[in-house]
Amino acid sequence: MHGGVAAGTYGRSVSVGYSSGQSVKTYEDGTAMFDVIDIKTGRIVWRGVAEGRLKNNMSKADREQLTITVVHELLKQFPPK
């Protein structure tokens, strides 16, 4: 398996992404998507989605911690049962 995982913040936005060479899509604030892609077929085999709003006064450290928390919560749903 190859690819990369990244998480970050910009302003009030929190971004979580995984890339295995597939196309990148941009979503409005408040949506985090985490795709698991079958490397052989290039198809998405699982998608985790989280939605919510960030508070205006969140510090960068708080946004980064929220990003980590969201990823952990999404991955609790993987693998699908």
Oligomer: single chain
Query: How many helix segments?
Result: 1
Q: Work out the count of structural domains.
A: 1
Please tell me what the overall shape is: elongated
Mean pLDDT: 75
Strand order of the largest sheet: 1-2
Helical fraction equals 10-25%
- For the termini, the CA-CA separation is 22 Å
Description:
- The chain has one helix at residues 60-75, and strands spanning 4-10, 13-19, 31-37, 44-51.
- The mean pLDDT is 75.
- 20% of the residues lie in helices and 36% in strands.
- The strands form two sheets. The protein has a two-stranded antiparallel ribbon with strand order 1-2. A two-stranded antiparallel sheet has the order 3-4.
- The protein has one domain.
List the helices and strands and how they pair.
Blueprint lengths: L3 E7 L2 E7 L11 E7 L6 E8 L8 H16 L6
Short description:
With 81 residues, the chain is α+β, with helices and mostly antiparallel strands. It has one domain. A two-stranded antiparallel ribbon has the order 1-2.
